[in-house]
Design a protein that fits this description.
This protein is an alpha+beta fold and 248 residues long. Helix content is 35%, strand content 24%. The strands form two sheets. Strands 6-7-8-9-10-11 form a six-stranded mixed beta sheet. A five-stranded antiparallel beta sheet has the order 1-2-3-4-5.
C-alpha cells in the first residue's frame, strides 16, 4: 500500500531511495517521508527537516500507518500531498536558494546530464550512508557503463571548491585502485570521474585553476547557461583547456 501510494507520486518527481534499515522518499534534494525499521517494527512518518518554519512542521509532520482494511491513513496522505504542493509552489515562486535549486535541476534533468553523463544514481556502494564526508561536498552521481561520473557543483568560493574537487578526485582514484569489481559475476571494475558544474561568473577563477592542472583534460569543467534557473541545464557547455579549440 505504501509502495503503491508513493509510486503514484513519481509523476510529481517523487523518488525512492533505499538505505540500510530505511527507505526514504524524496522530492528533489528534500526528504519528504521515510520508513524505518526499529525493534523489528516498521515506522512510517513524513519528514520536514528541510524547513525551520514551526507552522509548516506542525502542519505536515505526521505518522503513517496501514489499517486493517489495507488503507493508508488519510492524515498522512494529506500531509505528503501538502508537502509536495508546498515544494512545487516554492519552486515556482523561486523561494529555493541556489544550492537547493541547482540540486533539484541536476536530479530531475532529462536533457543534458543523461545524454553526457549517464543515468542518475542514488548513493553508490562506496557511500555507506549520507553522512559521509563525500556527500557533505554536495556530490551527485551518474552511471554509464563501468564508470560513475561524480558531478561537483560549484556556485560559490570557486578556488576553494576546486581544491576540494581535486581532493575528491584523488579519493576516487585511490578507491578505484583498491576496489573489487562492482558486480560479483563481472570482471569489470568501476571507475570514477569527477566533473565540475559551475556558472559563467566564475569562468576566470576556474580558468586560473585549470591552468594549474598538469592534465586539465582529465578534469572537465562544464558551465551552465545564465538562464539555468528557468530553462534548466540543456544549454550547458564544456569549458575546454586554452590549448584546445572551441573553448568558452
Amino acid at each position: 500500500v505504501i509502495k503503491e501510494f508513493f509510486q503514484g507520486l513519481e509523476k510529481r518527481r517523487v523518488r525512492t531511495v533505499f538505505e540500510k534499515k530505511k527507505i526514504i522518499f524524496c522530492w528533489g534534494p528534500f526528504d519528504i517521508a521515510e520508513v524505518t525499521l526499529k525493534n523489528n517494527k516498521f515506522e512510517l512518518s513524513s519528514k520536514v527537516k528541510w524547513t525551520r518554519n514551526k507552522n509548516i512542521v506542525a502542519k505536515f509532520l505526521k505518522t503513517g500507518w496501514v489499517d486493517y482494511a489495507g488503507n493508508l491513513n488519510e492524515e498522512f496522505r494529506r500531509a505528503i500531498l501538502g508537502i509536495i504542493e508546498l515544494l512545487e509552489n516554492m519552486e515556482a515562486g523561486r523561494c529555493f536558494d541556489n544550492r537547493d535549486l541547482l540540486a533539484l535541476k541536476i536530479i530531475t534533468d532529462r536533457e543534458f546530464l543523461p545524454k553526457h553523463f549517464g543515468s542518475y544514481l542514488e548513493y553508490p556502494c562506496l557511500i555507506k550512508n549520507r553522512k559521509s564526508i563525500l556527500n557533505n561536498a554536495n556530490l551527485f552521481y551518474f552511471h554509464t557503463g563501468s564508470q560513475i561520473n561524480v558531478v561537483h557543483p560549484i556556485i560559490n568560493k570557486p578556488i576553494l571548491r576546486m581544491v576540494q574537487s581535486l581532493l575528491i578526485s584523488s579519493f576516487f582514484e585511490l578507491w578505484d585502485r583498491k576496489t573489487k569489481t562492482y558486480a560479483q559475476n563481472s570482471n569489470k571494475k568501476l571507475k570514477h570521474k569527477t566533473l565540475i558544474l559551475s556558472t559563467s561568473n566564475f569562468i576566470d577563477e576556474l580558468r586560473l585553476c585549470q591552468c594549474w592542472l598538469k592534465n586539465p583534460q582529465y578534469f572537465p569543467i562544464y558551465i551552465i547557461a545564465d538562464d539555468w534557473k528557468t530553462e534548466g541545464l540543456k544549454d550547458t557547455k564544456e569549458m575546454l583547456p586554452l590549448n584546445d579549440a572551441g573553448f568558452i
